[in-house]
Amino acid sequence: MRRAVGRLRRPAVRRRIRAAIAEELLGTPWSLGVVLAFVAFMLAVGVGYYAPTAGEVPVPLWPLYADSAVAVALGGIVLLTLLPTVWAGGSAVDDAPTSRPLAYLQTLAFVWLVTFGLWPLVSLNLAVSQYVAAPDAWIYYWGVLGTHLLFVGLALLFPAFGRTTRGALRLALALAVGNVVLDYGLGYHPPLLYEPGPLLAGATLTVALFSVWLAWRSFPRLGETT
Q: Which residues of 182-218 are buried (b: 16+ CB within 10 A; e: fewer)?
């Protein structure tokens, strides 16, 4: 057991494991279709969550307001870019084409999925008594935590075939910080059962910075071979 854990500390071992999981989940039309269908379902749920309050937010700010829905949409677009490779057959997921626009898309999707996959762990547990006492707690607490953690799992597959650049990381960082300012400085935060304060704002910023750091650590740079 200790030897296995020690091996997982090696970047090369982690890359091989990630590539194998990505190939298993995304490497055939059937498996990719199943994942895309689940992503579409989560997107529909996310849109339904934000739709009732979207009218209170200026339309240009919707992409930053609808945090989770946008994260899932970006992740879905990343998966759709794999379709030509997967449908061609005979090619592994990590043979998918790379480009600068794709690197920006993959980096931003990764940061948004990780940030808003982890965010409910903080936001819901700051008022855990209210959420677990709600009539539909199995949805609004356990359901939200479970589905959002799947965001993180999906994002962690992206470095198996994606790339990043310094510009992409800088853009993701700027947008992540701007999103925190929008949510907690201007008050356009997601609907919650309580009024968030500095603690949630600081925790959200910490999670966002961690997500950018994780993207920097996880993705190969554009032009590098793996």
A: bbbeeebbbeeeeebeeebbebbbebbbebbebbbeb
**Do 79 and 31 contact (CB within 8 A), yes or no?**
no
From residue 216, give the alpha-carbon distance in Å to each of 66, 79, 128, 225.
25, 20, 32, 16
- For residue 94, the 8-state DSSP code is G
Residue 87 vs residues 80, 95, 100: alpha-carbon distances, Å: 11, 12, 23
Q: Are 197 and 136 in contact (CB under 8 A)?
A: no
pLDDT value of residue 144: 86
Give the distance from CA 110 to its chain's centroid: 5
Most distant CA pair in the chain: distance in Å? 55
The stretches in the chain having pLDDT less than 70 are 1-12, 90-91, 137-138, 224-226
User: Which two three-digit tokens encode residue 54?
Assistant: 């979207």
pLDDT digit string, tens, across residues 73-102: 999 999 999 999 998 876 678 888 999 999
Sign of CA dihedral 96, 102, 107, 112: negative
Strands of 23-99, DSSP E: none
